[in-house]
From TrEMBL:
This is Bifunctional protein FolD. It catalyses: (6R)-5,10-methenyltetrahydrofolate + H2O = (6R)-10-formyltetrahydrofolate + H(+); (6R)-5,10-methylene-5,6,7,8-tetrahydrofolate + NADP(+) = (6R)-5,10-methenyltetrahydrofolate + NADPH. Pfam families: THF_DHG_CYH, THF_DHG_CYH_C. It comes from Taylorella asinigenitalis (strain MCE3). NADP(+) binds at G164, A165, S166, I230. It comes from the Bacteria.
């Protein structure tokens, strides 16, 4: 059976490791602050925002949520973003995705001050990641890299396969793994023989957004399997993009759902917000190496 990579336990360690940095900022009169913009009433988005908010509050940090009606115009959304850009007490701005269909998420993200873009999605920050000098690393891929490091998984020279090519997970995940020395393949909905690709993977990252897309027959013996997906089944239970029962019989390491990548995404948002506050205070962030 696989060894579980416990995202809850690792995220708790990372939070503990941030305490000195947070105290240093507070001694200078600076409390790291995140503002999340939530447009509409999507239930899943509301849960994500609540979890993020609670994480910050529990650590004595500032977390605000700006709730806008679903019919909010692009102009009104940009107006709200510009207001937060100008607020020196706000260190991080996050737009909870997905936005309602009539809103252009890329335009909205591009309106965020890059120094407050703690999701790392602004084109300036995406370009910095592409060239190997990231200011903010997108939270989910950042968390995955920390999970791999926590188990001393050797990346250099490994075959890494990512299922899913989104700007949020797939593409930045590929860049980080490539920078760490892996040979990377990205699969998408047009990939002709998905199993042929996944069976080559020493490190398999499933981020396609389809429940149980990956099963044990699609995994090489001893592979490291990272499940980014999260879905609620008809019985109310959560599952991922990977069929955990069959995959865990072949993988060397595997992440569970829930309790795997999810907690890591939230804690890396915390890390990015602390880094933003440190830069604002003239402190060089002490980022733990992941590549």
């Amino acid at each position: 059976m696989s060894e579980i990579i416990d995202g809850k336990a690792l995220s708790a360690q990372i939070k503990e490791g941030l305490s000195d940095r947070i105290n240093t900022l507070k001694s200078k009169g600076i409390t790291p602050s995140l503002t999340v913009i939530l447009v509409g009433d999507d239930p899943a988005s509301a849960v994500y925002v609540k979890n993020k908010h609670q994480t910050f509050i529990n650590l004595g940090l500032i977390s605000e949520v700006v709730r806008l009606p679903a019919e909010t115009s692009q102009e009104k959304l940009i107006e709200q973003i510009e207001k937060l850009n100008k607020d020196d007490t706000v260190h991080g701005i996050l737009i909870q995705l997905p936005l309602p269909p009539h809103l252009n998420s890329q335009i909205a993200i591009s309106s965020i001050d890059p120094s407050k873009d703690v999701d790392g999605f602004h084109i300036e920050n995406a370009g910095a990641l592409l060239t190997g000098n990231p200011k903010f690393i997108p939270c989910t891929p950042y968390g995955v890299m920390r999970m791999l490091k926590s188990k001393d998984i050797y990346i250099r020279g490994a075959e890494a396969v990512i299922v899913g090519a989104s700007n949020i997970v797939g593409k930045p995940m590929a860049l980080l793994l490539q920078m760490a020395g892996a040979t990377v393949t990205i699969c998408n909905s047009k990939t002709r023989d998905l199993a042929a690709q996944t069976k080559r993977a020493d490190i398999l990252v499933a981020a396609a957004g389809k429940p149980h897309l990956i099963n044990g027959e699609m995994i090489k013996d001893g592979a490291v399997v990272i499940d980014v997906g999260i879905h609620r089944k008809e019985d109310g239970k959560l599952c991922g993009d990977v069929d955990f029962e069959s995959a865990s019989k072949k993988a060397s390491f595997i992440t569970p759902v829930p309790g795997g990548v999810g907690p890591m995404t939230i804690v890396m948002l915390l890390v990015n917000t602390v880094e933003a506050a440190e830069r604002k205070a003239g402190i060089t962030p002490q980022r733990e190496g992941i590549i």
